[in-house]
Amino acid sequence: MSDNQDKGREDRRTFFAQVSAGAALLALAPGFRLIDLAVGKNDDEPASPDVRWGMFVDTTRCAEGCTDCVDACNTEHGLHGFDRPQTDAQWIRKLDLEDDQTGQTWSLPMMCQHCESPPCVDVCPTGASFVRDDGIVLVDKHTCIGCRYCMMACPYKARSFIHEDLTDQRPHSPRGKGTVESCNFCVHRVDGNRLPACVEACSDAGHKALVFGDLNDAESTVSKRLSTMQTTQVRDDLGLNTAVRYHGV
Fold first, then answer.
1. β-sheet bridge partners, residue 54
2. Contact, 65 vs 211, CB < 8 A?
3. How far apart are CA 155 and CA 122, in angstroms?
4. What are the boundaries of each domain within the chain?
C-alpha cells in the first residue's frame, strides 16, 4: 500500500472521529427527546401521511417593513444571542422585491418551502435531512455532520449553519454548534394542535397574511384559499411541489 493511500485512510479516520466528537457535543434540553419531532405527537398518534401541512401567503396583506413573523420565529426558537450577529440563524426572512419593468413591488416572507421532493434531502449523505410522514422537512441534529451540502442544494437559501456555541436553548427547539437548521413549521406547536408562531403573530397583529393547515383536507381554510385564489410556487420550474404557496406575486 502506498504512503498516499495510508495518508488518505488516516485523513478519513480523523475526519469521522471529529464528526463523532462534534455530534456528541450537541446537548438537548433535559427531558427532550429528538425522536418526538421525527415521529409525531406520540407513539399512539404518529405523524400521518394522510396529512400534508402547508402554508398560504397572501402578499397583498404583507406590509413592507413589517417583521412580526420574523420576530415571532426568533423568539419562539431562541435565534438571538450570538456574539457575531452576522452568523445568526434566520429561519424566516422578509424579502422586498421589485419588477424592473413595471416597478411593482412585493414584500413576502421566505422560509423553508417544505418541498415534497426536497433537494436538501437528496444530497444529505447521512439522512439527517428528512421529510416527516406529514410533509414537514426536518434536520436530525444528532446525525448532521455539518457538511452543508443541503445549504448549497436549497434553491430558497432557507438553511443556516450554526458557527457559535449556544446557550439558553428552547426545550422544544434543539440546536447545536456545527449543524444546519431551518424552519420546521414549529413542529412542536403543530403536534400540540397549535399554529406556527409566525402565523399566530401575523393573525394577532391583524394582518392575516399567513394561513396554515392541512393541504390534503379539502375543508381546511388553507385548501379553500388555494382552490379559490391564484397562487404560485417560488421556482415552480423545479417541480418540487412546495407546501408554501404565494398569492399576489
1. 213
2. no
3. 13
4. 3-247
| Cα–Cα distance measured from residue 56 to residue 185, given in angstroms and rounded to the nearest whole number | 13
Give the whole-angstrom CA distance, residue 142 versus residue 20.
Answer: 9
| Number of neighbouring beta carbons within 10 Å of residue 169 | 17
Instruction: Check residue 40 and give its pLDDT.
Output: 67
Q: How far apart are CA 215 and CA 212, in angstroms?
A: 9
Q: What is the H or E stretch that residue 46 is in?
A: strand 45-46
Whether the CB-CB separation of 114 and 196 falls below 8 Å is answered with no
What's domain 3-247's architecture? 2-Layer Sandwich (3.30)
Phi and psi at residue 129, in whole multiples of 5°? Answer: -85, 125
Give the 3-state secondary structure percentages of the chain, helix then strand then coil, rounded to 5. Answer: 30, 20, 50
DSSP states of 48-61 as a string? Answer: -TT--EEEEEEGGG
Give the C-alpha separation, 28 to 78, whole Å: 14
13-51 pLDDT, tens digit each? 443 334 433 433 444 444 445 556 666 666 567 788 999
